[in-house]
Design goal:
505 residues, alpha/beta, 40% helix
């Protein structure tokens, strides 16, 4: 494809993304399937152009006089982001072949203008109505937080399944596959891959065999903060795709379960009354994780999501009960008041993941935020009923917006005085001693990851053994009592909010 044809294709794809609700990644994949003539370099160049526009969409719409069509946004990006001259842009818009038609007078005028003072929301790259929320939340740092969320491309984070392998083993396996993994700084079980070029993780044998899962480091951390221990009854109330269900399951392994227990080998020959014969070949049994007496329960209102969790559980070698929730939270009557931990990964705008899906920022409307806030309050109240006295309630969102985070838990605390705020981190001295008994090593130490022949040890602090010393210090600096915010700008993770409570009555 010529450079001009790539631009025309990028503009068409942007229009398709704007017209629907599918993720940009899915739209690009569909386009590639429909246009087999486009080679890998063409698809890569087109994808880069599309994401370049999506990340700067607000600025480009403003620069192009309010136009939101793909053609105008691509033209604006060539001028404002790539820095091409008007003449160079015109050369790419000659109308020849499959390239875009020539520039109009209005388009030429827009890219020829000297930029006026850019409004703050345009410079930040956020939807205009979100800026006030960011200012209220982050104060003078709001623009830095916005840039961290909207500008860089996110890395690919992996969580090593400690029931299947050690971190070192997986690192060696990925390097043998031609990748360059690095340890994540805060999660002791995390590995990080660069997004450039994008790796096909699901094609790796380590993924197929359940040794790794794709999970952002921030998502790994909020699972560890839940403080799950072997033998507990744990409810993942809004399981969704099951990523955090698997993270919680890893913490619930019984002592001694740093590896899966494989089925004993079957004999090759057996004795019968007529003599020795070859043993019949039975269907191989999948290895399962040794788990303490306890329960892991995953709930969701969408049955299809629960169905999609089953193969992930099987691949990881863990088990969970799946409960389909009714529209008003029905279906969990049998587990009211018995859970040691109820983990509420509440539905939200997903604004904390905009560096991965920038198109979602421009689909969001103020009424969507208000609707999510109301839904979160209702879900949190229902989930709280499942917690037993002395048990823990964990509220999590992947949102950057105050109305979905602080405003939601403020309302919960006012209406539920029987739930006492629980510190994100225990005192430093106590935590250090307990982390010495943790199931996973601190990656900042010289000891390295837990050996598969060593007996795993459990921590009793809310942090557990999944967070490094550096992570402990970082989170301690960010935590505000029982609440914690993580963001691309502060922790180089997706945006997350977590609040912890203990049921006292």
């Amino acid at each position: 494809m010529t450079p001009a044809a790539r631009l025309a294709s990028a503009a068409a794809i942007i229009d398709r993304i704007s017209a629907g609700k599918a993720p940009a990644e899915a739209v690009l994949k569909t386009w590639g399937t429909e246009n087999r003539y486009a080679g890998s370099r063409d698809r890569r160049a087109i994808a880069d152009q599309v994401y370049k526009v999506l990340r700067a969409r607000g600025r480009l719409v403003w620069a192009m006089g309010g136009r939101e069509d793909g053609r105008a946004l691509v033209i604006g990006a060539l001028s404002l982001i790539d820095g091409l001259s008007v003449e160079a842009i015109e050369a790419l818009h000659s109308g020849d072949g499959y390239g875009p038609r020539p520039l109009s007078k209005q388009e030429r005028s827009r890219i020829s203008m000297t930029a006026d003072e850019v409004p703050g929301w345009v410079a930040a790259g956020l939807p205009e109505f979100v800026v006030e929320d960011f200012r209220n939340t982050f104060g003078d740092r709001w623009a830095e937080e916005a840039a961290g969320l909207m500008v860089p491309r996110a890395p690919i984070d992996l969580r090593v399944n400690g029931a299947r392998a050690t971190v070192d083993e997986v690192m060696a396996e990925l390097r043998a596959a031609g990748l360059s993994p690095e340890r994540t700084p805060w999660s002791a079980w995390g590995l990080r891959l660069s997004a450039e070029p994008p790796p096909n993780v699901q094609a790796l044998e380590a993924f197929k065999a359940g040794r790794i899962e794709i999970q952002d480091e921030g998502s790994q951390i909020v699972c560890w903060l839940a403080g799950v221990e072997p033998g507990m009854t744990v409810v993942d109330y809004c399981a969704g795709g099951g990523g955090k269900t698997l993270g919680l399951a890893m913490q619930g392994l019984a002592d001694g379960a740093s590896r899966v227990e494989a089925a004993p080998p079957e004999p090759e020959r057996i004795w019968t009354p007529t003599g020795w014969v070859d043993a019949p070949k039975s269907k191989p049994k999948a290895a399962t994780v040794t788990q303490a007496e306890g329960r892991l329960i995953a709930c969701d209102v969408v049955q299809k999501r629960l169905d999609n969790i089953r193969p992930r559980l099987a691949r990881a070698g863990v088990e969970a009960e799946l409960i389909h929730l009714g529209p008003n939270g029905g279906g969990v009557e049998d587990i009211v008041g018995i859970a040691d931990v109820v983990f509420v990964d509440a539905p939200c705008t997903g604004s904390g993941t905009w560096r991965r899906r920038p198109e979602d920022a421009w689909r969001l409307k103020p009424e969507d935020v208000d609707r999510m806030h109301s839904l979160q309050m209702a879900i949190l109240a229902r989930a709280a009923k499942l917690v037993k006295p002395g048990g823990r309630l964990v509220y999590v969102t992947c949102s950057m917006l105050r109305v979905e985070n602080e405003a939601t838990v403020d309302h919960f605390e006012e209406d539920h005085p029987g739930f006492a705020p629980m510190p994100i981190l225990p005192p430093r001295g106590r935590g250090a001693a307990e982390r010495g008994r943790g199931s996973a090593p601190d990656t900042g130490s010289e000891a390295g990851p837990l050996r598969h022949d060593a007996k795993p040890r459990r921590a009793t602090s809310p942090v557990g053994g999944g967070i490094t010393d550096a992570g402990w210090d970082k989170l301690a600096g960010l935590a505000q009592g029982h609440r914690l915010r993580m963001s691309p700008a502060t922790t180089d993770t997706d945006g997350f909010f977590v609040a912890l409570y203990e049921r006292r009555a």
